[in-house]
């Protein structure tokens, strides 16, 4: 049995995807293509999930409170699970995986996991409780983000952590520097963000 969010010291399984957007739609900044019967994201949620901005900056701007990072686990990932984004295969092993909760004040608003080459992780993740964006952009270093995937996911421990029933919106993306892939990151967002962004999906009349 998995321990509670506050007690976990081991990596958790990646959440199960219930639906995934077509790669072509994600590349075009869309939730699904015109011929798909998939969900249609509202504008504010599309900006959050498919835009190339920093999620920690977005969360801080929305809530007016700084983002606190609670590290769940950061360990070697010797056998990447099938639920991991396929882009993880492009990273040079040995790999390390990091999982965190993102909180603003008392509110748990997101969960994230990231995969790294261990040498790159040692270089960029020395401050364990610091947001990745802050670590990677120190000294105004140039960085490029490419959103690769969008999904609806479910996991019982996400429901425990968010205190709200799923499924939940998720995305994954890569960071590049100098044309070289640094990390693959998956984020899952709490439905509580509808308090600021409005409903995630357009309602069909």
For this entry, give a set of tags.
about 200 residues, alpha+beta, Chorismate lyase, seven-stranded antiparallel sheet, 7 helices, 7 strands, about 35% strand, disordered N terminus
General description of the model:
This protein is an alpha+beta fold and 205 residues long. It has a domain at 41-77 and 92-192: Chorismate lyase, CATH 3.40.1410. The protein is 22% helix and 33% strand. The chain has helices at 23-27, 43-50, 55-63, 118-124, 132-136, 156-162, 194-197, and strands spanning 16-20, 67-76, 95-104, 107-117, 144-154, 168-177, 180-189. A seven-stranded antiparallel beta sheet has the order 1-5-6-7-4-3-2. β6 and β7 form a beta hairpin. The longest helix is centred in the N-terminal third of the chain and has 9 residues, at 55-63. The protein is globular and about 45 Å long.
Short description, anyone?
This protein has 205 residues and is α+β, with helices and mostly antiparallel strands. It contains seven helices and seven strands; from the N terminus they run E-H-H-H-E-E-E-H-H-E-H-E-E-H.
Number of strands: 7
- Rg: 16 Å
Uncertain runs are 1-7
User: What count of helical segments does DSSP give?
Assistant: 7
Major beta-sheet overview: 7 strands, antiparallel
């Amino acid at each position: 049995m998995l321990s509670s969010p506050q007690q976990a010291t081991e990596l958790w399984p990646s959440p199960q995807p219930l639906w995934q957007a077509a790669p072509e739609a994600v590349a075009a900044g869309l939730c699904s293509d015109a011929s798909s019967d998939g969900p249609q994201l509202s504008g504010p949620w599309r900006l959050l999930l498919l835009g190339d901005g920093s999620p920690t900056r977005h969360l801080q701007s929305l809530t007016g409170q700084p983002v606190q990072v609670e590290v769940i686990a950061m360990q070697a990932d010797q056998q990447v699970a099938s639920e991991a984004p396929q882009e993880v295969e492009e990273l040079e092993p040995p790999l390390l995986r990091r999982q965190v909760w993102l909180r603003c004040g008392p509110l748990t608003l997101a969960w994230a996991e990231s995969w790294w080459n261990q040498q790159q992780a040692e270089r960029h993740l020395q401050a364990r409780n610091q947001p990745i964006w802050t670590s990677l952009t120190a000294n105004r270093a140039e960085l490029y983000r490419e959103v690769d995937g969008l999904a609806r996911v479910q996991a019982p421990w996400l429901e425990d952590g968010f205190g709200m029933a799923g499924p939940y919106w998720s995305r994954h993306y890569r960071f590049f520097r100098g044309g070289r892939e640094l990390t693959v990151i998956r984020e899952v967002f709490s439905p509580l963000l509808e308090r600021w962004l409005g409903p995630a999906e357009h309602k069909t009349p």
